[in-house]
Design brief:
The protein has 9 helices and 13 strands. The protein is an alpha/beta fold. The protein folds into 2 domains: about 220 residues, P-loop containing nucleotide triphosphate hydrolases (Rossmann fold), CATH 3.40.50; about 55 residues, Arc Repressor Mutant, subunit A, CATH 1.10.10. It is globular, with a radius of gyration of 21 Å. The N and C termini lie far apart (about 65 Å).
Amino acid sequence: MSLPVLPAAKLPSHTAEQRWLIEQLWGTEAVGIIGGEPKCGKSFLALDLAVSVASGTACLGRFRAARADRVLLFAAEDPLHVVRERLEGITAARGVALRDLPLFVITAPRLRLDDSTHCQQLSETIEKIHPALLVLDPFVRLHAIDENAAGEVAPLLAFLRHLQRKHQLAVALVHHARKDAGRSRPGQALRGSSEFHAWGDSNLYLRRRDRLLRLTVEHRAAPSPDDLTLELATNPLALHVVDSPPPADSPTKSSAAQRIQQALSGATAPLGVRELRTACRIRSETLCAALDLLLAQGRVIKSTDGYTLAA
């Protein structure tokens, strides 16, 4: 039997409205990674996406959801009561009631993508619920393979791609970055095989900068927005965008870089972000942007103890 074909002019097309599940953040029926080092808010961001789609409200209070639709979630690391507490914090910040949302949580004690029985059960669950978004958090708890071996990673990612095409849904997979990947490009910092970076249609990467988080967005087939600075608020417990413009007399990245180098040149030991912020008297966001610039230029070196001037 031959493979199905269509003339190129008859291929399906999407309008701008149909292109996004969450505008500028996640494409309709896109698969991708929510990546970052441990304890940098990946699970909170994944839950924020889930609430946004389920409620039809703006993700992070900024990025418009195309519509309200069903979401299926599996949180492999967190107890169910913790998942509920986090969801209640996010929905409270969004002004919606958790009980009203079509957000479904898989309560099975484990789910393995390298187990054919589990894969069949997941596919049947999706068939039953018909979600627009599947969230799996985190990948490391969903298998017993070698994440560095492309030949072992690729079949699991191919299965998720199969689910996306068969059920016409988006898939968000939470995955860790390497702990020593501060100077790598976000996609290249993901732990394990390069298959992860290549697989994603929409990818979100988080990096911690003191108490703040830097969010980088990457799309395969659409322009990406500028990086955003996020903060985890405590009342209610939810991520929000920190976007207050700097004062008119706030130092630029260039002058901030000069202050950082002056502070480091007079230091007898590496300085952390908090110490540099005190010494330079500049905002955290400006400081982190200047540090990123200096690291990229090779003018400073980052270690576990802090920052030092490069030789």
